[in-house]
Every structure is written in structure tokens, then in C-alpha cells.
Amino acid sequence: MNYTGVREAEVVVAGAGQAGLATAFHLRRVGYEPDRDFVVLDHAPRPGGAWQFRWPTLTYGKVHGMHALPGMELAGADPDRPSAEVIGAYFDTYERTFGLRVHRPVDVRAVRDGADGRLLVETSEGTYATRALVSATGTWDRPFWPRFPGQEVFRGRQLHSSGYRGPRDFAGRRVIVVGGGTSAVQQLLEIAEAAAATAWVTRRPPVFREGPFDEQQGRAAVARVEERVRRGLPPQSVVSVTGLPMTEAMRRARERGVLERLPLFDRLTGTGAVWADGRTVEADTVLYATGFRAALDHLAPLRLREPGGGIRMEGTRTVRDPRVHLVGYGPSASTIGANRAGRAAVRDIQQLLGVGTGALAAPGAVTPD
Q1: Cβ–Cβ contacts within 10 Å for residue 116, how many?
Q2: What is the pLDDT of residues 316-361, one digit of tens each?
Q3: How far is CA 293 from CA 167, 191, 264, in A?
Q4: How far is 366 from 369, CA to CA, in rounded Å?
Q5: At what angle do helices 18-29 and 335-352 cross, to 10 degrees?
Q6: Residue 332: C-alpha distances to residues 101, 178, 308 (Å)
Q7: How many CB atoms are located within 10 Å of the residue 141 CB?
Q8: Residue 362 pLDDT
Q9: Which residue in 103, 109, 105, 125 sits closest to 45, CA to CA?
């Protein structure tokens, strides 16, 4: 069917972070051409995915578990350079090397059913009619803000970790950091060097992991998350499955008392926090390092969610609509998982579109532009 004023593409990839670029690489690898057979849409202003928004003091040497994109290693990076710059430059080179022709900035606003079995992808640059959609939109656009009694009366500053720009903003302040993830600990350790006082608050007691995270542990962690998404439940946070990797900096901070964790407070007051047992902590700032949720609002018209609040998955394919794949979601929400998910999604899409899958077996089949 010829859609008036609508562009056609066999596959639309929404998002150009790790998962989206890995998917685009594998689409090219099996013979799909950018801007002819598939299109990659990214709403960020420049290459780098969510990494481009990381705080400047998070240097590349502090990054935990960055895995290279398929077909191109990230080698020789300066560990003292901000991770946003290192990975942004790497993604930029990757896009140009493999001629992925990412469209940006483009907002994907809604995905709806169209005619002839196609999906209509409504974006800020127009509408695409596609036979398959790969949603690789990540989580950065949906920071999770917890709700506590008294937030409206607290006279200090409240911010989410997505707005954290470094420890200078907290010099001489009394700071409560809420959250038990890797970012929470990294930011707490930085802030503690500049702040007058810090308190660390988490919902559950943190579990610190000593030693390397081996392949067997990795498979077990992925299996736990996969089980949840197969049941249509929202994915768990990474740290709840893997634990916090203990570093030398964290050991030193623990010895200084910085990592003495408190349970969640009962409420905020005008000048700090109060616990049910009568404990109080005075504070000028509350930093919510409470993570993110999957940015999937554009899929709402397709009604993919289950009663449990998540999207039920088989591999990367959504059970309610096999034309829609989620990569970088659930068990693939890691850099290595995103690479594998991109490859798996392309294999599935080839089967959906009635194309052979043999080309996926030949490494290095993509010729850089």
C-alpha cells in the first residue's frame, strides 16, 4: 500500500544507544540498507546514548562493565577522560564507520496499528509505516522519583541523580543520598569528599559483591530477570540481581563510615528527615539516586502491558505483538546483553519478514562505508 505522506521502511529502530546501534549493525550485516530498508531514529542531540548525559566527574576509568559494540573495539581510551566524552566519541565513530545514518534529534511519539499488517510510527519528522519495530529507548527519559510524606515542606534542595553534575554543588552541605545502586554509591563517595555531612538511605540492606562476576553468576542473574518478563512483570533493577561490586574506593569509604547505611526514613520535615523510631538527620539536600523506568510510553496505543505492569516477552519479541521487539529491556539491559539482544532481534525479524537467517552466522560481513 502506498501511504500518502508516510515513509515506508521494513524496520524502524527507535533509539541509538548500545542496543539500537547493535541492532542496526546486525541489520546491515544481513543486507538491509539504512534509509532504504530500515531507519534509526534517536531523540538525543548527538551520539552517545544515555552516556552523553553522565556527570563530568564520572571518568571512563570508573565505568563499570562497558562492553564494546559489535564489530569495533573501544581501545586506548584515556581512563581520566569523562565517560560521556569517551563513549560519545566511540558511538559517533561507530555510526560513521558502518554508515548507520542515524536521524537525530527525532522524537518517537506513538506507535499504532496501520493497514496491511504494518505499524505506524509517529515521530517529530513524520510518520513511518513499518513491518517491524525495534524499541531501544532505554530508561534515561524516565527517572524514578519516590514519594515520601513531607517532600512538599522540605526547605532544602531535592534532585534526582540524573541531574547530578559533580560534588562541587554539594560543598559544605548536609546531604541525604537515597538509593542502593551503583550510581548512588559513586555519587555518594564523590559528595562525601565535599559535603559537610552525608547520610546514605536505602530501601533494602545493600549486598556487596567481592571478586569478579563470573559467567555462571551472569547467567543466573539474566535468568531471574527473564523469568519476570516472561510473566509480564516489570524488570528488577540490576543491583537487586547482581549486588554492588566492591571497589578499593568503596572499601576506603566504608572504613571512614561513609557507607554506613540507614533504612528509609518515615518522612521529610522542613530541615531534614525523621524515622519512625525518633531518629532525625538534618539536611540541606536530598539526592534521589533511585534509578529509572523503561521509556515505553510511545507503545501505549498497542496495549502491550500485562496486568502485572510489565510487558511479557519471548526473547526480545513482545508476546502481544510479534512485530515489536524490545532491546536493552529486562534481561538485555546491560551493554553485553544489548549486543546479544540486537542480534537476536534481527534474526527474529528476518523470520517474521520471510527472509533467511544464514547471513547472521558470518562475522565481519558488514563493510564500513
Answers
A1: 8
A2: 999 999 999 999 887 777 777 788 899 999 999 999 998 654 444 3
A3: 25, 25, 20
A4: 9
A5: 40
A6: 24, 26, 20
A7: 17
A8: 37
A9: 105
Long-range contacts of 236-240, Cβ-Cβ distance < 8 Å, separation of 24 or more = 237/181, 237/291, 238/181, 238/182, 238/333, 238/334, 239/180, 239/181, 239/182, 239/206, 240/204
Return d(Cα 23, Cα 11) in angstroms, integer: 10
Q: How far apart are CA 332 and CA 226, in angstroms?
A: 9
Measure CA of the first residue to CA of the last residue in the chain; give whole Å: 32
- Identity of residue 240: S
pLDDT digits (tens, 9 = 90+) for 72-89: 999 889 999 999 999 999
What's the rounded Cα separation, in Å, for the pair 120 and 59?
Answer: 40
78/85 Cα distance (integer angstroms)? 10
- Distances, alpha carbon 302 to alpha carbons 115, 239, 319, in Å: 14, 30, 12
pLDDT score recorded for residue 244: 81
| Amino acid (1-letter code) at residue 280 | T
SS3 174: strand
* Packing angle of the helix pair 18-29, 83-97 (nearest 10 deg): 20
